[in-house]
Write a structure and sequence with these properties.
The chain is built from six helices and two strands. α3 crosses α6 and α5 packs antiparallel against α6. A two-stranded antiparallel ribbon has the order 1-2. With 121 residues, the protein is mostly helical.
Length: 121
């Protein structure tokens, strides 16, 4: 169990002397904090695009990798069609779609730059 000891004072002993006791942090809260941190990592699309770019440099077809990265609009529409999904889940699907489009745009730029560099040399 993780104990969170953050309060107005710098030391746990000072907080205890004022009657404040550390409270256990629930594992679900820790998971939620980590999930939020991961969701807002601005470099995440770049990291994923770099992984696909590495596959491209190792000989994978750019077109095949584009198909692996992309989520076609009709697939998103199909995912969002069932009304039984909660609003939060549907929002997650939209975020996934936007994320994949960002990854695809970055990957395309990397491939284009590689092809331009190859022509210059």
């Amino acid at each position: 169990m993780l104990i969170l000891a953050v309060h107005g004072s710098n030391t746990l002993e000072a907080n205890k002397s004022m009657g404040w006791q550390p409270q256990p942090v629930q594992p679900a809260l820790v998971q939620q904090i980590l999930r939020i941190r991961d969701e807002y990592d601005p470099s995440a699309p770049m990291k994923e695009a770099a992984m696909f770019y590495g596959l491209f440099l190792r000989g994978q077809s750019a077109e095949t990798l584009r198909r692996d990265i992309d989520v076609p609009r009709d697939v998103l529409t199909k995912w969002l069609r069932p009304r039984r999904y909660e609003t939060s889940f549907r929002e997650s699907l939209r975020r996934i779609y936007q994320f994949r489009k960002q990854v695809l745009a970055i990957f395309d730029e990397l491939v284009l730059n590689e092809r331009n560099r190859a022509r210059v040399q």
